[in-house]
Amino acid sequence: MSIGFALAALAIAGAELSPFDPSVRLLGRFDSTARGAEISWSGTGMQIAFEGKSCHVRMGSTGAIVGVRVDAVPAKDIDLLAPTEDTLVALAANLAAGRHVVEFVKKTEAQVGSMVIKEVVLDGKTSTLPRPGRRRIEFVGNSITCGYGVLDSVKEHGFSPRTQDFTKTYAWHATENLGGELQAVCWSGKGLARNYDGSTGQILPDLYAKPSASADSKPWKFSRWKPDAVVVDAGQNDFAKAPLPDSVKWENAWMEFLETIRKTRGNVPVVLVDGPMLSDYWPLDASGKPLPALTKVRRHLRNVAAVAMSRGFASVSVLDFTPNSPDRGYGADWHPNRAQQFLNGQELSDHLKKTLGW
Q1: Domain-by-domain residue ranges, the chain?
Q2: What φ, ψ does residue 254 adopt, rounded to 5°?
Q3: 3.40.50.300, 2.60.120.260, 2.40.10.120, 3.40.5.10: which CATH number matches 3-126?
Q4: pLDDT digits (tens, 9 = 90+) for 226-253
Q5: 19 vs 39, 41, 123, CA distance in Å?
Q6: Residue 222 gets which letter from DSSP?
Q7: 136-356, which class in CATH?
Q8: Which residues, listed in sequence order, are joined to residue 15 by a DSSP beta bridge?
Q9: Does pTM surpass 0.70?
């Protein structure tokens, strides 16, 4: 059966919905385009409640792996790594009669590819969406937040979208621990002031203004979703190579970004975390001597938090993640594996409970 025929047959029996229909909940940031809702960032996706037996989504993709949950139970991932322009994808089929909640989230990051949600096709009628999470948390970060290599167990392996999974990260675990919902802007190799490759373009503060990774995307409308807290993991890439960043310039870059957050988000609490990959044994200077990157980043974050509080920020706190350890193992390219991410997620949710009274 062709995709077009399947779509027509389903349309007769049920409902065809725009992704912007009030019955559809878009998860994470999205860009409203003539083609539909474009999503790029990790954890972006869609949720729909309906009475029926199947739910399909017509979409295009330049590359992604999608995680699906049906009535809160994980289903088989959908592999959309091969580019496609117009495909009818089955999220759920052959369900028992009655009400169901289906959602999908993008497990891979923006550099892997984007997706455009064009239409939701049901064989029944829409139902009331579940209540959103009690707390809203926004995450800004790098490969650690994206879940780079989290499904791998060999540190010598390189990047693969098949071993990346945002739903296994500290951000996802912490949010679930708190019964909340999240949005994330993260990209492997990106830094606060300089990226892993030494470039200074498209750093995290630049990406923060974007609804998607497309070069022609419109500015994100921050009023669409207001967080109760913002968590920023930055420093791993800035301090990955010698020479280390100038202390004054790096702390000033932090303050500029915090002012951007306050301007766009209001005076919300901000948590500064140091990535678990930082170490005082790496990087090495020209003579082969290790540079204390972890110690420096932790000191800088405390300096930044103190300055921010003196400037009237509601709450800027620092959380020292437990670093990677051979006892827990590693993911690809020495990144956190599932055990490490789970531990750091617990540390973050505990910190938010203690610091903000959640």
Answers
A1: 3-126, 136-356
A2: -60, -45
A3: 2.60.120.260
A4: 999 999 999 999 999 999 999 999 999 9
A5: 11, 17, 16
A6: G
A7: alpha beta
A8: 122
A9: yes
